[in-house]
Amino acid sequence: MVEALQWFIGLGSTVFLPIIIIIIALFFGVKLSKAIISGITVGIGSIGLDLVIGLLSSNLGTAIQTMGEKYGNSLSIMDIGCGVGGPLAFSTTLGICIILISLGLNLVFVMLGWTKTLNVDIWNFWFPAFLGLVANAISGSFWVGLLGIIVALMIQWLLADLFQEKISNFFGYPGIAITHMMALCGTIFAIPVNWLFDHIPGLNRIDADAETIGKKFGIFGDTVIMGLIIGIGVGILAGYDVAKIGQLGMTTAAVMKIMPKMVAMFMEGLMPVAEAAKTWTNKHLNGRSVNIGMDAALTVGHPTVMTTTLIMVPVSLLLAIILPGNKTLPFGDLAFYAFAIALMVPFFKGNIVRSILGCSLYMVTMLYLSTWLAPVITNVFKLAEYNVGTAGLVTSVNCGLWPVALFTILLQSIGWIGLVIIGVIVLGLLIYVNKIKKPAVQ
């Protein structure tokens, strides 16, 4: 069974995701021909997203590396990046186990009405698996790691349920829940920070969503031009010559234009499945709604998300240099900030000024947590037999998040009992939110 799952994951997300979509579509009663078209369309959209993200990463990544070498020589802990999280997690027994545990337990919770999220985003099971590996690395016990996975999955479903309506309405994805746990973590930070912004005179009157900026600033408010300007700025900071600066500017402008079209294709394939799921649940689950859990990649094409992500690259480097006590050199995650901050944007109401300020504050916590958690994260890499070379301590800025800190504190202080306590609390909240009181996140 383990070998079969490893083989399936080894097919790559652009192959196994369409297969999963086809199977789920057929389960919900979609005709075979339509199910196949939906699955293939989702696969094409996934390939398109990978190409665009790869285009941004390969071009921006080189500039980022140069910037890091120029400005971050005093930082001793290397950010190896969350991009290795999936391969790392799925190369372990815990990472393989999570596939069966998540799919099986999730279906039970859906049938019991304890969650409204049916998560099919198998690739991003890696983050709950990573939390399980954290539990394993700290405790030295495989079984504590398994407990950590179950608790992490319940936290994932709870966050997805709580914020589905807000996120779905903002991005325009009915019947879809974003289950990318790394992205969901930021919502907990964004809500109180946005409340604070609401009570700061002057700031609470700034209307700076993408549409308003476009109207006020004309051509300079267009997302393509903003991408061009940001790319040129990063090229200048990296010390590029004129040709390379222009090429980087055009690349970021192209990404700003192409990304939303790839997301639209992704959604084109998903919508028939979401509609069929709604019809099926109305018939078989007494009208209870079920949302299809998907990747945060669906949200990164939003103009505010993309603009904020690009601006966070130089901001994170500046913060890393000036923050006292920070030892993390942002590197591996610089091109992937979108996946950590995308779901914060709806809670900042799409306001670019609030998003940049709020995400900058969030980055402060991520840098400090990734520095503090570096010994634990390094042990996780070693547990998975991942070669970190001669880097010494390694970390991931995008993994410097509150669930990782919470697991670490509990396990280091009271052991596995801490995970049991959190698990009971989260289970109670899931039942309360979905069976007793409907969520009302506005």
TrEMBL record:
UniProt entry keywords in alphabetical sequence: Cell membrane, Membrane, Phosphotransferase system, Sugar transport, Transmembrane, Transmembrane helix, Transport
Chief subcellular location: membrane
A GO cellular component entry from the record: plasma membrane
Compartment list: Cell membrane
Signal sequence interval, chain numbering: none
One Pfam assignment: EIIC-GAT
PANTHER family membership: PTS SYSTEM GALACTITOL-SPECIFIC EIIC COMPONENT
Keyword Transport: yes
Membrane topology: Multi-pass membrane protein
This protein's name: Galactitol permease IIC component
PROSITE patterns: PTS_EIIC_TYPE_2 (PS51104)
Biological processes annotated in GO: phosphoenolpyruvate-dependent sugar phosphotransferase system
UniProt domain PTS EIIC type-2: residue ranges: 5-434
One function term, GO molecular function aspect: galactitol transmembrane transporter activity
Xref: InterPro entries: EIIC-GAT, PTS_EIIC_2, PTS_sugar-sp_permease
Residue stretches spanning the membrane: 6-28, 35-57, 88-114, 126-159, 171-197, 217-238, 298-323, 329-348, 360-381, 401-433
